[in-house]
Every structure is written in structure tokens, then in C-alpha cells.
Amino acid sequence: MLDTFEVLRQRRPRHSAAELCRWIQLPYSTLRRWRTRRRRGEPLIRKPGPKKIPELPVAEFRSRVARLAHRNKRSRGVGQLHAEFGHALSRRAIDAEVAEARDQHKRQHREQTLHIQWLQPNLVWAIDACKVKTDKRDPGHVVVLARDLASHFHFDPLVLPAESAEQNTAWLAMLFTHHQSPLFLKRDNGSPFNELHLEDFLAEQCVLPLNSPAYYPPYNGAIEHGVGSFKREIRSCLDPDRPVPALRHFMPLVRAITHQRNDRPRRSLGGRCPSQVYFQSHRTRWNRPQRLETFEWISAQVADTLKANREKLVQRDVHSAWRNAALSWLRCQGLISITQNNKLLPHFEHQNRS
Q1: Owning domain of residue 33
Q2: Which of 132, 135, 217, 296 is the most buried (most CB within 10 A)?
Q3: CA 18 to chain centre
């Protein structure tokens, strides 16, 4: 039939292909399909029935899926997987297998992750900053948040046009005056929280810093989660088509959201709100001798750890040893409880105060 069409096309060059197809009663879509198959060197008419699919190496496929670099929402290397196994599996089936493997990976990670519960308010604070803006061209404002980890209480935030170590230090000094300084201060490795001016202030107040490991936000996950939810709440109150208001109009909104979060009952606090837990609970006032004694104990543990590993010592080991020593001191004092897979570990649940 295709040869008949080609002969007729040579005899009637002025007529369109659709008209010629009607003369020989050949559907135009069939003509185009046959032409494509002939150009590819394929048979014009295929046998009816499903195509024969090559056998799928199931063990190799599942092994490749398990070895992918699974992240929270995506997995790296899925494109190569489609190229190698697309002849035997559809794209949807491969994506479903990858999604199931990623969910299993996340479940295993959650089961192996240890969660620390702080048992006394005013023991550990966490600070972090976020940029609030509505458009890429909008400069926005920097909001610095401080949170008591035991009670989830958010202190009066600091709003700045740009990050500043000097203003962060003055703000922390004001909070320490009103609420008493904590024993530990968790912070990330951002420059405004690690400059010499702030370091000297913390040393003067005898507040022990705990820096997060590089590229590991879950170490300071409480304030990281609080910053994320705070940004979502404040953006819901702003007009996305307009820039962020000036500081004098933006600051009342930030304080209102902070007070609302402090007065919201939380299931993790037994139905109480952070304000009740922070102000109605016993808050230990750490005097200077206690702070110095804690610092000396942790420093001795750090020195022993570094002395044991002096052959392969690198800079990050110093911060890691400091974090581990601080965790050991908190365990010995019974100031924390560690949970795994939502179950208290009995070894740390009945720790007695030394």
C-alpha cells in the first residue's frame, strides 16, 4: 500500500498527501506511521499483542536503588537508573521504587537519631538569625531569635537591617539582665555569632558556647525549626506584592507573632504553653563558681580526648571534643534525657546527680 501511494504521488505531484490517501482509502495517520518505521528500518506492520520485554535483573535493580544518595525530597542518580532499566520498567514504576526506598531510608535515620530533652529552663539557649523579605529586590530585615530549649520560650527578638555582631552582643546583654544568663548557648558557625566581640562578652558572663558541626543543622534543630515556622507565619501576614514594611512598622508584627507562639499550648509540654513552663518552673541561677567549675570539668575532658587522638588531630576535632564533653557533663548531672524512636533510653532516664 505504501508503494502504491509513492507511485501515485509521482503521477499526481500537485495533489496533497491527504487527498491521495483518500483516493486509495489509506488513513493519513497510518501513512505517517509507516514512513517513520521505514526511515528507522523497522517492519511496517508489527505483530499484534504486547511487546516482548527483556527480563529485569531484580536483584541488581534493587541494589542500585538502595545505593542511591537519598535526600529528604529527592534522590541523586535517578536519571541513570531510567537509562539502564527503562527498557524493562516504566518511568512511573522506577520512581515509585525510588520513593519507597527514600521513605525507608528516612525511617531508619529517624530511628537511629538521638533526641535530647532539656529538663531545666534557663540551662541552654539557642540563637539563630533569618532574613525576611518578599521579593529578590527587596532588602528585607534580619530577625535574630533566641529560644530557651527546655521550655520552648522565645525571648524578645532583635530586628536589624543587616547582621551585626555588636548589636547582637548588646541584645544578648539585655536578655541576660532581664532573664539571667544561661549556662550554655547553642549557635551556628555564622560570623555574627562567632566574632571576637561576642566571644569576649560570653567569656565575661561565663556562658559556655556550643557551636553546631559544619553542614549539620539538626544539631541545633530546635531553633532551626523555630526559625522556619516563624518565617512562614510572618510571610503569611505580609503582602507578597509589596516590600517588607519599615522597621518601626515591622517590629510590632514580629513581637506579636513571638507572643502568640509563647502563649500557644504545646503537646510536647503536656498541654502547657512555653510562657507557663518558663516562668512557673524552677530556673536554676548559675553563679560564677558553678560556671567556672563546669568549664574546668569540660576543659579537662577535652584535653584528655585530644591527648588520646593527638596523632590524627584536626581543627574540627577540638569543637567535637568540646561538644562531647559538654554532653557528658549534662548526662552526669541528670539535666538531659535522651530519646530514640520516641522511647526513653533507660540508661539515661535514671541518671542521678553527681
Answers
A1: 2-40
A2: 132
A3: 59
